[in-house]
Amino acid sequence: MKPRCCIDKKSVANLSQTVEFLKIISEENRLKILCLLRGGEKCVCDIWQYLGLAQNLTSHHLKVLKDFGLVSSKQKGLKVIYSINIKVIKKYSKLLNNYLNSYGE
Amino acid sequence: MKPRCCIDKKSVANLSQTVEFLKIISEENRLKILCLLRGGEKCVCDIWQYLGLAQNLTSHHLKVLKDFGLVSSKQKGLKVIYSINIKVIKKYSKLLNNYLNSYGE
DNA sequence: TAACTATATCAATACTTATTGATATAGTAA
DNA sequence: TTACTATATCAATAAGTATTGATATAGTTA
């Protein structure tokens, strides 16, 4: 009756990690950024201009995404190019799917 | 280069819906409740006692989940029994997977 | 009816976090 | 060097929301 997800240490840890991931991507601008980066790497100015955000706000959200490992950055001249970390996203997607899929059976 | 998800009306609407869903489930107690209800329908007192939450707080989170359609409730004597709406969850899972899957392709 | 149990609601507070404005840093070019 | 561009950081504020305490409501049982 009591599902494992709320009992043993590993399950609790997974739930915590999943919630952290969800908090990161449950912000509209951040999800848009991830969405935008799916089309290929972009510099910060491309991102904020395209999304209509303030430059510093964009930097802030990129930092949140980067700190969590969802994106990476590299300097290229004056610009900083951000790209998406597919593997990391897949990892958390998988964790999340433990909570969203496999109902019933 | 510019992904559809940030341009046309339908994509913007999908993103908004997805973010709303994410905000609902990105709260630890709510995700735990969903997790718990996967094991079968439960009354409120079972839920708050099992999760160690205050009764009113549990009611609050259940209301949030219910208002969004993720769970349903029915009265059974003194108790109110909550159950999970698998179809709704699947619907939003699908929406979400548009953002988390199919990278690179 | 009255007393009791289970749940919901309301107001206030606490907490987190998004946003803004100002400024700093780093790279580039003259 | 100075001037310029792109990005990051910091402090302050604003906005949203989780939590708590008190109370109300609904169903049950005596």
Notable traits:
DNA-binding; homodimer; 105 residues; Arc Repressor Mutant, subunit A; three-stranded antiparallel sheet; alpha+beta
Please give a structural write-up.
The structure is a homodimer of 105-residue chains. Chain A has a three-stranded antiparallel beta sheet with strand order 1-3-2. In chain A, β2 and β3 (79-84) form a beta hairpin. The two termini of chain A are 14 Å apart. The model of chain A has no long low-confidence stretch (mean pLDDT 91). The first copy, chain A, has a single domain (9-102), classed as Arc Repressor Mutant, subunit A (Orthogonal Bundle), CATH 1.10.10.10. Helix content of chain A is 60%, strand content 13%. Chain A is an alpha+beta fold and 105 residues long. In chain A, α3 (44-51) packs across α4 (55-67). Chain A binds chain B through residues 1-3, 5-6, 15-16, 18-19, 22-23, 25-28, 31-32, 34-36, 38-40, 50-51, 84, 86, 89-90, 93, 96-97, 99-101, 103-104, and chain B through 1-3, 5-6, 15-16, 18-19, 22-23, 25-28, 31-32, 34-36, 38-40, 50-51, 84, 86, 89-90, 93, 96-97, 99-101, 103-104. Chain A binds a DNA duplex (30 and 30 nucleotides) through α4.
